[in-house]
Write a structure and sequence with these properties.
This protein is α+β, with helices and mostly antiparallel strands. The protein has one domain: FAD/NAD(P)-binding domain (3-Layer(bba) Sandwich). The chain contains 10 helices and 21 strands. A hairpin with a 4-residue loop joins strand 15 and strand 16. The model has no long low-confidence stretch (mean pLDDT 97). Bound molecules: flavin-adenine dinucleotide. The site of flavin-adenine dinucleotide has 41 residues, from helix 1, strand 4, strand 7, helix 8 and helix 10. Its EC number is 1.1.3.6, 5.3.3.1. Pfam families: GMC_oxred_C (PF05199), GMC_oxred_C_1st (PF22500). Its cofactor is FAD.
Length: 501
């Protein structure tokens, strides 16, 4: 029998995990959250919790000697990345051959490092991707609940039109409109009122100080300020940090036993613990949850797990690109880091693309328009378990990214033609105008309705649940965290109402 026991354990503390923790706590279930990263609440030597994006230090990345920012170079020069000391920093880039995956590490998971964009998917596409989920219920109850809980808000259009901080977005909008494309405002979880006060010089700057992928010191409603704060407030939830869950096995007495490694700030494992629970909620993200399940299946710890575990993984069709504008179309030395506008061409049946107009705050004037395109890439990857390294390996070949690049190229060729502009070749390495070897939106690996039932109950393992991005089958058409949150809300409603505790 394990020395420690809790009625419920939640693995990870990203979106799905945070919803599970809050709803369990409110239902009176004593719950332990195990998170492999740090709690980001104490200031460093510079007086800030997170480092500036332009001056990254050990806090920026997860056990690296050098930062690995999405933009590799500028003018082909290696001026973006910095040498750092290995430390449990907030952003990780997990390499899997031809595809690497950016993820957040720490209490709050991806909410600590993401761009805060909070769109709700097109209802028609959502129903196509997840036909087993009642769309009336999602759009009537769970999406509105997720948006409210996450603190989703809209930019004031009047301020957007007048502020220097969104000139970059207005320039990109003009170029999109010249090509006959539609743009839309995109809601965000960064508090736009706070941002206006930043611009007025009334409060410390964060989005207006270049902060985003290595954490925001102010303004952003990350999960530690929303769901996780509320979960702790129930008095039934505790969060344990630097706890990496590596094993799960059934407890002969019922429920599950989890094996967790305690890490220290140098990356050493200082202890290995076992914790028992009645119900186990996996919220370690697409990569984390899939690895835990795959390892358990392949080592025989959970032989009941089916063949669908490790399948149906996709990049949400992510591809990044950048255009070079004419000299008169400067984008501004001052740029807010939170995107507020997207090019919405998803209804173009021949080439659906939703492209976020991304900032590139360099603190100096320039002519680059950046985009993160979300495309409808039908390719799917899968994971296998590598016993030698005791880890999951993603199988994704370079050519599987080609449909994403083709779709983004078709859209931005249009924009370039209409504006007589060209792509930038100096930013992503290898002289490429399209960054097709990383994703911000890992989705799938434990797909809803395939590896689980329609509510995330893992098939063959009663009392074991997946609650995160691993449930989404590889594509959503928009940035994913609102959907991950809403799906977790829906699952927790059902699980708490019906499943034995
Ligand atoms: P995650 O948020 O990934 O959380 C998983 C947590 O589990 C992490 O804290 C991790 O450390 C922990 N963990 C993993 N393995 C283990 C283990 N074995 N044991 C214990 N803990 C573990 N999405 C949007 O919707 N809008 C955006 O603007 C946006 N921008 C992004 C920008 C960047 C740079 C990145 C990286 C992502 C962005 N995303 C965005 C994606 C979004 O953040 C993710 O889709 C979301 O965080 C996934 O939620 P999740 O619940 O699946 O898990």
């Amino acid at each position: 029998q394990p020395a420690q026991y809790a009625p419920a354990i939640v693995v990870g503390s990203g979106y799905g995990a945070a919803v599970a923790a809050l709803r369990l706590g409110q239902a009176g279930v004593r719950t332990v959250v195990l998170e492999m990263g740090r709690l980001w609440d104490a200031p460093g030597a510079d007086g800030k919790v997170f480092p500036a994006t332009t001056a990254p230090d050990q806090r920026s990345m997860w056990f690296r000697n050098r930062t690995e920012a999405p933009l590799a170079t500028f003018l082909w020069l290696d001026v973006v990345n910095r040498d750092i000391t290995p430390y449990p920093g907030v952003l990780d880039r997990v390499h899997h051959g031809d595809m690497s995956v950016y993820v957040g590490r720490g209490v709050g998971g991806g909410s600590l490092v993401n761009g805060g964009m909070a769109p709700t998917p097109r209802r028609s596409y959502f129903s196509e991707v997840l036909p087993a989920v009642d769309a009336d219920e999602m759009y009537g109850t769970y999406f509105p609940r997720a948006r409210r809980m996450l603190g989703v808000n809209d930019i004031d259009p009047g301020w957007f039109e007048s502020t220097q901080w969104y000139r970059f977005a207005r320039v990109s909008r003009k170029h999109a409109h010249n090509a006959g494309l539609r743009t839309v405002f995109v809601p965000n979880v960064y508090d736009f009122d706070y941002m206006r006060r930043e611009a007025a010089g009334q409060v410390p700057r964060s989005a207006l100080a270049g902060e985003v992928i290595y954490g925001n010191n102010h303004g952003k409603k990350s999960l530690d300020k929303t769901y996780l704060a509320a979960a702790l407030g129930t008095g039934n939830v505790t969060i344990e940090t630097m706890q990496r869950v590596v094993g799960v096995r059934p407890d002969p007495a019922g429920g599950y036993v989890v094996t967790a490694q305690t890490g220290d700030l140098t990356g050493r494992v200082t202890a290995v613990r076992e914790l028992g629970c009645r119900q186990l909620f996996l919220g370690a993200g697409s990569l984390g949850t899939t690895e835990i399940l795959l390892r358990a299946r392949e080592t025989g710890a959970l032989p009941g797990l089916g063949e669908q575990v490790g399948r149906g993984w996709g990049t949400n069709g992510n591809v990044m690109t950048a255009r070079a504008n004419h000299l008169w179309d400067t984008v501004g030395a001052c740029q807010a880091t939170m995107p507020a506008l997207g090019i919405d061409d998803w209804d173009n049946a021949g080439n659906p693309v939703f492209a976020e107009i991304a900032p590139l705050p360099m603190g100096l004037e320039h002519w680059i328009s950046m985009y993160l395109a979300i495309t409808r890439n039908p390719e799917r990857g899968h994971f296998t378990y590598d016993a030698a390294t005791d880890s999951a390996r993603l199988h994704w070949r370079r050519e599987q990214s080609a449909p994403s690049v083709q779709a983004a190229k078709a859209l931005f060729d249009r924009v370039n033609r209409a504006n007589v502009t060209i792509y930038r070749y100096d930013l992503f390495g290898e002289n490429k105008p399209f960054a097709d070897t990383f994703t911000y939106h890992p989705l799938g690996g434990c797909v809803l309705g395939e590896a689980t039932d329609a509510y995330g109950r893992v098939k063959g393992c009663p009392g074991l649940y997946a609650v995160d991005g691993s449930l989404v089958p590889g594509s959503l058409g928009v940035n994913p965290f609102v959907t991950i949150t809403a799906l977790a809300e829906r699952a927790m409603d059902r699980i708490l109402a019906t499943d034995p505790r």
